[in-house]
Structure formats: C-alpha cells, structure tokens
Amino acid sequence: MTSRIGSYDWSESTNGLLSRRDKARVFGMLLRSQLAQRWTRILRSAGAYERRLARVDLDHVAVPDSAIVREAERVAERLYSRDLYAHCQRTFAFGMLLGQFHRAHPDPERLYLGCLFHDFGLTRAHAAESECCGFELVGARQARHFAHEHGWSERHCRSLYESISLHLNPWLSMSAHEAEAALLQRGAMLDVIGADRHLIPLRELDRVQARHPRDGFRAAILASMTDIRHPPDSRAGFLFRCGFACLAGNNPLDMTAEVGR
Questions:
Q1: Backbone angles phi, psi at 234, to 5 degrees
Q2: CA Rg, the chain, in Å?
Q3: How much is the pTM?
Q4: How does pLDDT run across 87-109, given as a tens digit for each residue?
Q5: Domain limits of the chain?
C-alpha cells in the first residue's frame, strides 16, 4: 500500500502532515502499541520468551565498517549534539538486539545509516525545515540524497528513506515492513520511552547504556519537542498532544540511569 502513513509516496505527497483520517489511524497505532506492550509483558512473565531472550547478546552487534558509514558518521557528528548522537548509537544497538529477539535479519549498514540520519530534523542546522513539515522527512530526504550520492540503487535509497519516515509511527508490523524500518522504529521508541525494554535482558540494556551513556538525553529529547515549532498536523505535533512528552519524561531507562549514578 503506497498510501500508508510514512511511506515514500504518502510522505512526499503530504509533506508529512496528517489528515483527519490519518490522525485516527495514528491514534489506532498508539492503542495497538499499548496492547502489544501489555501482552508481551504477560508472556515474558509467564516464561514464554526464555529462548528468545537467551540469544540477545550485544557481543553480536557491530557497527558496519565501510566508506559510506564513516562519511555518514562524520556528517552526523558535526550536526548532532552529544546527547542526540548517543541516542542514534543506542537506537542502532537496541534495534539490532530486538532483531535478535525477533529473529529478524536487517542489513546492518542500512539500519545504521537510518539510525544516524533519523533525527537530523531535530538538529539546529535543520530545525527551520522541521517547522514546515514532519521532522522525520528532513532526515529521510537527507539520507536518500546521501545514499544516492554514494551510488546506492534507487530501491535501496527509497528503502532507507522509508525506514526513517516510518519511525514516528507508534506501531509497525514486523511482518508487513522491512526489517530495517521495523527495528529503527523499535530501537528509537525503546530509547525514547522505554517501549519493548522487557524484550531485552537487563544486562544487555545496561551494557548498551554503559557504552553510550544517556546522561542529559531526557532533557534534550523533551527540549526537541518544545523548542522546535513542529506543525500541529505532523506526527510529532499530534503525538505531543497525545501525551508523548509524558511518556518520554517518565522513561524507566532514564530512571535506572539516574539511580546508577
């Protein structure tokens, strides 16, 4: 379905702005996400995930080593604050760990680039652009152009774009979307609001956060919701009105990090 919210065609035809019907669909995604969280917590408590949890291991996660990755890192390090850059790194690590849990097999290079570019619209250099469209489109467009300049096929450029443009959907099906998109969304949501944290062993959560400390991240992500004038009809604007800032402000991962200091 090329018209689905966050797809390339939908994004470019709407500039990332939601119609009334789209808002109803996003709200439905919120409800489905909450139900999924409750159900998987019940299954975890019942011991249904022991084998899946046993295979989740940060030692099996590595940042791809390629010329395009190194160049993307240089660009990202120039644009992001320390807090947002660390968020991108944790998003990749969490996405890969959740991929192990779900037995998904993403292309690590495509997933990593998506994680690096996904919040470009929240940086000072691109904040003005995010006041005119969904901020996720800023990063998606930058990533697509960057990949095209480095010789990627149009299919892979568009796939990278969609992995970023879809990440603000509160719910993405693992079966209906490419692994890179589903895991970028899950990794970002885990880091921002703590969603799906029960699907990763505590020791691995701690290892990710020791490698990429989240000191100051809560303040940075909350500021990104208020300091940038996100269009009210963008997904960021709509989710903010649905209470997303409250979820981010009460992320259990931040509470754990503060207790550990």
A1: -80, 165
A2: 17
A3: 0.95
A4: 999 999 999 999 999 999 999 99
A5: 8-260
